[in-house]
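I would like you to sit down with the record closing this message with an eye to the fold:
=====
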Amino acid sequence: MLIKGTFVHTPRLGDLEILEDYLLAVGNDGFITHFRPVGSPESIELLRDHAAETTTVLTGSFLLPTFCDLHLHAPQFLYQGTGLDLPLMQWLDEYALKAEERLDADKILAKRVYERLARRLLQNGTGTVMLFGTIKEETNLILAEAMQSAGVRAFVGKLSMDISSRPTYVEASAEASLSSAKSFVDQCRHMMEQVPLHLRRIEPVLTPRFVPTCSDELLGSLGDLSCLESLRVQSHLAEAHDQVEWVRSVRGAEDIDIFDRYNLLNPRTVQAHCTFLKKPDLSRMVAAGSSIAHCPLSNVYFSTEPFPLREALSLHIKVGLGTDIAGGYSIDIMNAMRHAVTVSRIRESSAQAKHEKDTDDSQDTGTTYKTLAIDWKESLYLATRGGAEALTLPAKSGTFEVGSFFDAQLIQLVDPVSRSGVGALDFFDLETNGDGDVKLNQDMLEKWWCIGDTRNRVGMWVQGVKVL
């Protein structure tokens, strides 16, 4: 497959590249094999030999890497957009656990919810997702099948929890929970063995829900299993005030200490939220090689602290974005990007005011102030390349470079016939090149980032397979 047109990506934090008139080639395995300007000798040769296989991106449109969602509770999609009126620990009892129990008891409902979830993810540009499931193996296999069938690359986690505030929704013991986790891993892997290698989209993930629902025995066993079989791990870390205080009072430690003690902080780990981590804790995340799923919208609802995003990025922690359905109400990673910028600007305004006061009080602190805000281009990196790195996808994933997955979404900003903006977009000063084609610029991309929606997304590919 050859695609000719305009490509946009963020290969480095803060760097956005608009690559016009490029040619991209995709191999049968879904990896990019060529990416050069159309006028290069190699591109000219490819176009000559494979003209019939070439797709041209129309003027006013561009290709962008698909989004990565690092944290989403699949069964909670059942009540997305409702039930955000309680603190975290009460919310879990009142809404989350009930929904998860309901899907575990109703296979038909689970299939309907998960198939719709997969479709919504693709409509919103998400090609890769890390999912929390439920405690029942069969329900999580339904989830895995729904994602595989839709073409979504999904890391699926069967919940492990031998402690629960809901007596009807808990695993019988640490031993039973571990056995179920092992069984799910085996069944999930067996399912993928039936699929051609380049079309395998599903990988199992060990998923201790969080410290309050897991005994020390269970956490230790899961840590051993992760190391023994090189399995990914996902959980929640330092998320909310009531959760942090519960762990301190009941377990007598910080939850980062407990995860670390049981080898659940490792390079295969993605921890969600992390809003209460201080700088020494962030340094521990760096040393462990673990990643963080930043979920700005749900943090507003459930945490009294914003995540220290700029500090984490400055320490080179691998950070991506998560929607945290249903703790966050929007499945759209574009909204997660917007909220990430908004929260960072609030942090910046507060820090700037404090810096100015401290400077006034001391006349001269002798320090250089550094911004805590991020901009839209940095958030786009987090949603694409940053998310791919946090999930330890193959090198260069999340970009248009030779050797990376061809994971792409086709975004249309301008109708090629009417030359008017698509969806919510309006452009009054369109620039064209010598051929009369619309010339994209950063202002147009920023407008799409701010107010674009699903009407602008007209195609999706995951590892070379068209899924939308």
The domain at 67-341+373-390 is CATH 3.20.20.140 (TIM Barrel).
